[in-house]
Amino acid sequence: SSSPTAGRRVRLGASPSPASTIASSHAFRRVRPAAASLLDDPIEARPPNEPSANLLNEDLAPVAPAQRTFTTYDIAALWIGLVVCVPAYTLAGSVIDLGMSAAQGIACIAIANLIVLLPMVLNGHAGCKYGVPFPVLARSAFGVKGANVPAVMRALVGCGWFGIQTHVGGQAIFAIACAALKLSTATVASAHFIPALGISSYELLCYVTFWTAQVAVVVKGIESIRVVEKYAAPVLIVLCVSLFVWAYIAAGGLGAMLSAPSTFVVGGPKEGQFLSVFLPMITAVVGFWATLSLNISDFTRYATSQEAQFKGQTIGLPFFMAAFSFMSVAITSCSAV
Fold first, then answer.
1. Among residues 25, 77, 243, 305, which one has the fewest Cβ atoms lying within 10 Å of its Cβ?
2. How far apart (Å, rounded) are the C-alpha atoms in residues 325 and 318?
3. What is the pLDDT, as a whole number, of residue 9?
4. Do the Cβ atoms of 70 and 43 come closer than 8 Å?
């Protein structure tokens, strides 16, 4: 007869059951390091099984790994294109207008962007993993029909932001055209003013021109946006550095703004009020990118890997936002000299 020990050997040597295999697999996944699971998490995007026509279309379908083209550089270039804009340029100046020194203002912006980076990479992680956009990810929290509410709200905010950026771009074209023709912007604007719109006909033409240029890129899809940002990012960096060098040489230094002390120091006009300005400003700067942190998956769903979306965002957002803020403060300071 077989001994109990032999029986145990037989049981130990037998093939494990499916249930034990699944349990072991789950246990193994639970002990994986967090960093490894974040950057090495495999892409699980796949075609849906028997999808409903009411829930799926070409824009909402998961993006397969073979269709993804956004590398680390492309994600970083996208962020550089987002960061280098007139509203961001004026952001640092507004912080200093509240009484902060240049160092405090730039540090405030850098800290706020590090804070908003967290939801960026986490929501971007889900987009990269499953290859779906924000309206689809929102279904897990709001339900299939309820997800339409945050999706539409985010779209409306996006339309407003698009309008602001287009207005700024149109004004830039208008100013450049007037400077090239050696005309006064105030004179041209007042001579052809449209009261109902609050701008002149020439400003409207510049607005439509800039709007058309943007839409021409957008309607061609995400790949056209990637290509534009890929080549625009280095150009924007060169232009910013060139403008900084020109302003520095023309002014003979960085000017008074960078050397001005904080008004919150002991004996200053706002002594003891630093936190009452610092904390609301942190909130305001976080709010500058908060809406995009919701739908960043619309872009990271095209990332080639989790490492690409993580590194691209980490390089592109906090670093370049702080660098651009410094340049904006320095250029403004030099221009005032």
1. 25
2. 10
3. 42
4. no
Q: Which of 79 and 25 is assigned the larger pLDDT?
A: 79
pLDDT tops 70 at residue 13: no
pTM over 0.90: no
CA distances from 195 to 200, 201, 207 (A): 8, 10, 16
Note the pLDDT tens digit of each residue in 129-154: 999 999 999 999 999 999 999 999 99
CB distance 301 to 132 below 8 Å = yes
pLDDT of residue 120: 95
